[in-house]
Write a structure and sequence with these properties.
4 copies of one chain form a homotetramer.
Chain A: H1 6-29, H2 48-67, H3 78-81, H4 106-125, H5 132-165, E1 191-194, E2 197-201, E3 217-221, E4 224-230, H6 233-241, H7 253-262, E5 270-273, E6 276-281, E7 284-287, H8 299-308, H9 316-325, E8 357-363, E9 389-392, E10 409-411, E11 420-421, E12 423-425
Parallel strand pairs in A: 8-11
Antiparallel strand pairs in A: 1-4, 2-3, 4-12, 5-6, 6-7, 8-9, 9-10
Chain lengths: 426, 426, 426, 426
């Protein structure tokens, strides 16, 4: 009979999680032509090939290199090429030049993935050599690596979309266009009142969370009201038609300067043809779906819209307060669409998860007594706690088992290439 | 016997306040050559002449134009030239081009000041024509205009310093250099513990405050500790000598990118000559005073120093919590020095007010249920609530009757031309 | 009776030339307010104060410092501050920061001028201490310094015009506006044929010339035709109205990119008000004078206009060939207007000198066997022989005794702040 | 018996020329991985895939679209995507974004090539339908298209080299490294005297030439001397070791500014490892070959080197004068190396053709009475006649039957990605 510790058992069962995650990345790449793997229009939108290699490098560097005897990397230069921003383990390759890495080829990168997958499998199968402390450590790093890869799964889609959009051919990632139910009408915008009071914020469960979701702490939350759904495309169109983009009084000072300089006057992927509105999506160009939540807008646009509408954005604490009470609403449909489509919304509060990232009024800052992950992975989240805003809720491109009520995403106020939309509050 | 309302009486006594403030601006300009009035090295550092005109424009636009019958501006073009950022009342002149306004001349701008001062005097003297409501309104706008001019009094000095520094002659604003007591030693760095708990933040008194200090609201403050004094130059030198500027692990990601791009490796006005450290001050170049609080550093530098020292910056709530309990420490000396000099620090907590602005860990955001000032002056504070960090405490250049425990200043994380230093917390 | 050498005598008479030139600079500054002395909108347009000091520095550095025993500069830092681009004698102060030099003050700079003038006077009066070789050398450097100051006299006006133009008040340098004769009509555009053949180019006389005008050399000139006058404003208007600025086929590739990027669609100082054309001049804003030569256009614009008109620009050799045969046309009127006004043009070829600089088809390159001036002043012309185009003829702002048929001016193709116009050829 | 005109016969034989040229492009791409086809580090270095499509578009647009009845393009969007700079036929796709065109795929582009090749073949085979005038026209356009493709054959190599160099793996285009004869020593630098005199410049033969080589015209050429060979790497090393890059007096003003701003201090592909010099080549990284001609330097560097060496660069007229007298030296070896290697140089004048492009002192300007090609292809050369310098002689990457004594290449003074070297003159 066995003496195996609980952590050893858990570790054994983790192999499947690992393989499922890795396989999903592969599935996401199936629709691609080989030519599509190396596009990068701006520093932020990395090539798919780079995502494939970087997520693999993460497991190699933060697990294999630490636990393997006589560790030998797949290729000595990959440590430099596929390091994103971990200065603690070496000098990363210039971010905006990732598209210049024609070598290693796509084939070699897939071999790299197999090589590391095989090594991880062996490590998990033969974990009896490890101490319980090592197993705990390994369990955490595996979970981190998997959540990390899930983040890149979303980026693979958002980056590809942005890069494809630069091509006048407007390529389709998905050629089979989903049927859109044009009879769906969303419920009218309504605000739910919350009395506020003493409450707690942050992650307190046993499972995995990022360091930035902790520690769990008490706050005093003033009363507030929270919109029953996201702002829809037809509502955002009204803002445009009311010349919202031409009225400085609606905008933050930096936002006004930003749209003046860039000439922005509509969401990122919208365009007009013969006086009709269209939107570029992963299914190619489509007529604008008026009943879908607006997305691909900056914080500045979300904030200006809210002011125009006579409301404001919620704080991240307000959002989390609501989400924790409505978290059973996380949709479990296995195949998410690649674009927010009109859906029946019969809940009291709709669109909480996996419809569109929701800009909050909160700057991305450490929670009181925040501690970064220890060692090299301490660079994961903490060093970005400046100049960015918190987003909550995930989009339809976020893996469903990746999101949770305490999850804190963050982007710069000007960023628009993520699927970012508007929840109103008051 | 008189029936004069209380507000009418208050209004009468306000004339002296107004004149004192306006006269102080004039005193600040006394040491200048006429050539010095129009310098502008970067968009942020406006010419003195522009400050003189803009503060006058503020009274003319936001008071005279509203209350005078048959209002006629001093010059029709000034409304465009001396508007800083009030889009609601017209299109401001391009900020970075202010130094190109050789006309109106300095003489004309002084005439403009006298013209408006005379009109304001008349308005106050003959306020009996006004309704009580108008008097309330006038009282508020006058207070706002005076506080506004005080902010520009500080800017006159910080902008001039920055602009002078571009000249290899390193001109002196003050030619009489103060005696420095080299025997003063600051107390060792010590942290005072505060238990935290439920407390209130924000302005609740009857006097003047800016909109961003309100509303007064309750928060739940975790326990924290707070340094007994600011970080000193000799302490900051240790950070430099320990190669703090070369260690990415100490820096926020944006901060590291910022110092790499700009080559920053010391506070703004420091320089070395024959292996000795010097500092450019409003008294000209001086040997670095080791026992003075470090100043003219960015948020990035303050944050990196705190991490290097094993601590962190305080939140604005922590700072205010302490300051409200130690506000009797506001120094009342009539003639502030133009540079932080070593002082005897026998208080439990030192350097709270008027030594150096203290970067906090808090992004500049609206308080819960924040309401901007009404009408045109609503643009004063609210539209800057993005991308900036809160600073507290004032510097030796801040007028002493301008600062208070609830006062929220804000600058971009990269800004260094204000007198900004470091308070540590844990 | 005297044994004085010819060069000594010549030297004696040079004092008057020197003083006349220096006094003229002073006259040019008479209309200025003190506030006007330090404007600099772009690197190219230096402050007047800087021009006053730099021309003085030129005499101090290249004459006094070489000939005076125990030479002591007026101020040790001026060597750095007022060096324009002579790397051979030290590091020049950053060009685009000249407007940040509030010190030395205007008064000090005028004292500097007097100080150097006095020294030069003494040197010339007591030149008997010098050898004949030194006298020759001194004569050349004085001539160079005077011609150098004349170039800056023109720049004082063109730079001031550009800097004033940034001010919405559109200040007037000259308040007395000249009478414009609206009855003057220019002769129709006509082309004079020249058969070409063997000819010589470059300066061969005894007087002063710049190094770039030498050596005198033989060329083989193909036949060509040359326009009888400059292109006029009403002709250039036709180009605009024919959408010349919207037709890429008319433009050099770099020119097209340049106007697309900058949005240029008319000459520099033109603007429209109530559908009427106006032009900013040193007399302030004036209705566009249709019979005046067009000026303040780039090489790109001149070239595009010529193509649109079915012609081309002349080469500098063609221009010089014509000018040498028509050099008696140099106008000798003592008080030039500050703007090209309609004039009676009865010559076979008009507008050759002192109406507008004429862009040529020739890149600014060394003549065969070109030798730069010796020693430090070798940097005067030669190092700019790349990326610039030759202009000929001078403008109404060029001192009349400064221009000559062999004179080669040079600017970048994009430059427009000089008074630059169009001579057509075929 | 046949009546076929001479031009019809010539046309028939042109098919082979066409096919040979097109096949050579294909051969150049053989060593590539599919990942390599879409690299673009800077606007100037287009992706290989784009070159393949653009050269095809050239034949399609400028021949097929004009001569085919019911012409239908291969794909309607290609007209936009693969237009380089012909504004006359439509709006070109943004140059610096060419690397974002993952679609059409490489496979589709090869199909495009086959499609157009087939059409051209048919056109040539069935040219009996054409008038003699049309045949003349076709003959010219074919020749132009072939010479155009040859230019892109060179660009394919130079662009790939530049793009590969951004990858730290330093990929090899050619894996079989040629044997280098280390015993070869070049003859010492010697100058051949030419008396000059009346001569003619430009193309006058019957064959194909570009418009910019015409018309053939007479000039008067001063005497000059001309170096017997190109400057070698070991000679350029001396310039570096003598601190040539740190001495402003050696540099043109724009050149000095350019190297200061960019930090350039050696030829483009040179680097040091363990104190040894290496050079990146199409064979990968190799130890610097000291006896090879220096290449990949800017005009500024060539000019500064010449000044340092006490000489100057030749004018394009001098170069052509010599080349016409030594044109039998055009090397006919069928397989050029992909990098200039040491060779036996027994000629009186060496390295004239196909070793390295030679910067001349001449700005790229029209010859007297220059006429651009008629119709749309008039944009080919003329619109670039500004801001660029003429280069002569071709490099080892230039197809041997593409270069000739009158050939005028042109690049901006700062450009270094072409194989550009130094011929000295005096």
């Amino acid at each position: 009979m066995t003496n195996k510790s609980a952590v050893a058992e858990k570790l054994g069962s983790y192999l499947e999680k690992y393989q499922t995650c890795r396989a999903h990345t592969w599935v996401l790449c199936e629709p691609l032509e080989q030519d599509d793997y190396n596009l990068q229009a701006i520093a932020e939108t990395s090539p798919i090939k780079w995502h494939l290699a970087h997520t693999t490098w993460f497991f190699e560097t933060f697990i294999l290199a630490k636990l393997e005897d006589n560790f030998k990397p797949f290729h000595p230069a990959f440590h430099h090429l596929f390091n994103s921003y971990y200065n603690g383990v070496g000098k990363p390759f210039i971010r905006c030049n990732r598209h210049l890495l024609s070598r290693p080829t796509v084939d070699t990168v897939y071999s790299y993935r197999e090589y590391v997958d095989e090594k991880i499998k062996n490590l998990l199968k033969h974990n009896s050599k490890l101490s319980d402390h090592q197993r705990e450590w390994l369990l955490f790093r595996l979970a981190l690596g998997i959540h990390h890869e899930q983040q890149h799964q979303e980026l693979i889609l958002t980056d590809l979309k942005y890069n494809f959009f630069q091509n006048p051919l407007l390529p389709r990632y998905q050629t089979k266009i989903p049927k859109i139910n044009h009879n769906i009408t969303n419920p009218p915008l309504r605000f739910i009142e919350f009395p506020g009071g003493k409450t707690t914020i942050g992650y307190e469960d046993k499972g995995f969370s990022f360091d930035n979701e902790k520690p769990h702490h008490e706050i005093s939350l003033p009363s507030f009201s929270f919109a029953n759904r996201l702002v829809l495309n037809h509502e955002y169109l009204e803002f445009i038609e009311d010349k919202g983009y031409q009225k400085p009084g609606l905008w933050l000072s930096d936002g006004w300067e930003s749209i003046c300089r860039s000439g922005i006057n509509k969401p990122l992927y919208w365009f007009q043809k013969n006086h009709e509105w269209y939107e570029y999506t992963l299914y190619g160009s489509m007529p604008l779906s008026l009943e879908s939540p607006v997305c691909h807008i900056s914080y500045y646009e979300a904030d200006a819209y809210a002011r125009w509408a006579g409301h404001r954005l919620p704080t991240e604490q307000e959002w989390e307060f609501v989400a924790k009470r409505y978290s059973h609403l996380v949709d479990g449909s296995p195949h998410p669409p690649y674009h927010p489509l009109p859906q029946i919304n019969n809940y009291e509060i709709n669109h909480l998860f996996n419809h569109g990232w929701q800009w909050t009024l909160s700057a991305y800052l450490p929670y009181p007594k925040f501690k970064p992950f220890i060692d090299e992975v301490g660079e994961y989240n903490g060093k970005f706690m400046c100049n960015q805003m918190v987003l909550r809720g995930g989009s339809c491109l976020t893996p469903h088992d990746h999101i949770r009520p305490t999850y804190r995403n963050f982007f710069y106020p000007k960023d628009r290439w993520q699927m970012t939309g508007i929840r109103l509050a008051s």
